[in-house]
Amino acid sequence: MKSIKELQELRKIYIGGIGIVRFQRYDDQEYYDFGSQAILNCLDDAEMEWKDIQSAFCGNVYAGTGKGHQVISEVGLTGIPIINIEQACSSSSAAFRLGYQMVATELYDIVIAVGFEKMGRGLLASTAFKPWELALGFNVQPANYAQGVIRYMTDYGATEEDFARVVVLERKNANLNPYARWYQSGEVTIEEVLNSRVIAAPVRLLHAAAMVDGAVAIILCSQDKLKSRISKEKKIEVAAAVHTTGFYGGESIKFKSTTNLTREAAKQAWEISGYGPEDMDVIEAYEAMAPAFLSDVEDLGFCKPGEAPHLLKEGYFNIGGKLPANTGGGLVGCGHPLGATGGRQIIEIINQLRETAGSRQVQGARIGLCHSSGAGPNAVVTILKR
Amino acid sequence: MTANDKKQVPVRPGLWNNDEPPSLIGSQCPACGEVFFPKRERGICIHCQHRGLEDCQLSRRGKVHSFSVIMQQPTQFFVGKVPYAYGIIVLPEVRVQAHFTSCDFKDLRIGMPVELVIEKLGDDEQGNEVMAHKFKPVKE
């Protein structure tokens, strides 16, 4: 078996193009309508045609059988392998990783990773819980986040104001992102967050990413297949794409898990890319509920456990700060169409490295990291460099 | 039908025994000693992959590891009433997820000693009383 690092030395993989539709409610459209629009936007950006695409990897959670096929049949029928991937909220970042591997191993030269989601209206029944767990009401995602949040507060002295600052930062950044749910929607204050209603103490309504619809598409290809001017002038290379799942230990007393899947994914990504946390110019950290941002940046190795609240307060993660994070608004600012979110995070990093992030541009950004997580559990870490 | 005719059904069979007072039933791995709750029906140890776990009785007292108070109605499958509180309780053998009861949820704290009770969660569609394992605060 060849290691990823050995494969990477065989062939470098680049971003051929990106496409996205604004994250918002599309009440008058089905998932294949705005999903196919993201593909068309991606082909336009790449200056490629659908017949150039050799395989498609489609991330989605809630649409049914053959969902990727339905989206792609709106664009063209070329008989290529279409693979549907469900990895909860990390579906399209997992799809991106699979596409990357297919080109890296020289099975294909040009593939597309797609993510799309039309979110249900109202509360969603998750199939990730057993019937008796649903009867007990153990399936409340904010409450499951809250279990970790209350520990974080107790262990590190973090406050409700610290969590509110994550929302303030992300809603501020979302104002500058034309694809975000909360684009040009005004900023929120710490007080507004603290006054929003409690969903599952200490998690509040304004901590939660809005349920919106959305779609993304990213073309991955070998260097000789790059076509558009921007993809050749601002060449973005995949430096690492890693996927981990749960490690035993969470329910144990005797055998405590010393390996958290996010920490392990980051560790592997540093090893493969040869970079470390100090090399990153811009990052995306996953937070379907705002407080998770703080523990994520710690687990990823950007600071020590318990340090993130202080760094956030002093502007470390601001655009213009030492390590700009979630510059497009994160999940809280963009909204969270499950199957599209991972790809949206990767596209934000690509825009930053291409210097096409407009008024939210991080000056001189050349290397970026994207972290997604999803129920399962899954953690996906992607490192991109220009 | 009067209230007295109501049948009591557990939220899931096999979570606790019929002793007085009752205890939760877990699985223990004879190979590595690891304990699981609920008992693992397939009998496979997810730590060392040994096949053939044995039932074990869990301690009735433990400490609160984490908790949340839920203010929003979950799905239609939820049998209880909002607001409710659940969290992780550390028993000497294993961590257990359960509801909290017999307290003002505002008083819940990490590290608080708690004890097992079997209590009504709510009524199911057939009018049965659905029973669940819960933990109530106790003095040290």
Which structural traits does this protein have?
heterodimer, A: 386 residues, alpha/beta, Peroxisomal Thiolase, Chain A, domain 1, 4-stranded mixed beta sheet, 14 helices, 11 strands, 19% strand, B: 140 residues, mainly beta, OB fold (Dihydrolipoamide Acetyltransferase, E2P), 2 domains
How would you describe what is shown here?
The complex is a heterodimer of chains A (386) and B (140). With 386 residues, chain A is of the alpha/beta class. Chain A has one domain: Peroxisomal Thiolase, Chain A, domain 1 (3-Layer(aba) Sandwich). Helix content of chain A is 36%, strand content 19%. The mean pLDDT of chain A is 95. With 140 residues, chain B is mainly beta. Chain B has two domains: 13-58; 60-140, OB fold (Dihydrolipoamide Acetyltransferase, E2P), CATH 2.40.50. Chain B is 0% helix and 40% strand. Chain B is built from no helices and nine strands. Chain B has strands at 8-10, 25-28, 35-36, 54-57, 61-70, 84-90, 95-100, 113-123, 129-137. The termini of chain B are far apart. Chains A and B meet through helix 5, helix 6 and strand 5 of A and strand 3, strand 5, strand 6 and strand 7 of B. Strand 5 of chain A pairs antiparallel with strand 5 of chain B.
What's the quick description here?
The complex is a heterodimer of chains A (386) and B (140). By secondary structure, chain A is α/β, with parallel strands linked by helices.
Tally the structural domains of chain A.
1
Considering residues with a beta carbon less than 8 A from a beta carbon on another chain, report the largest interface and each chain's count.
Answer: A-B, 35 and 43 residues
Please, what is the average pLDDT of chain B?
94
Q: Given the C-alpha coordinates, what overall shape of chain A results?
A: globular
- Would you identify the CATH architecture of the largest domain in chain B? Beta Barrel
Low-pLDDT runs of 5+ residues of chain A are none
The biggest beta sheet of chain A is recorded as: 5 strands, mixed
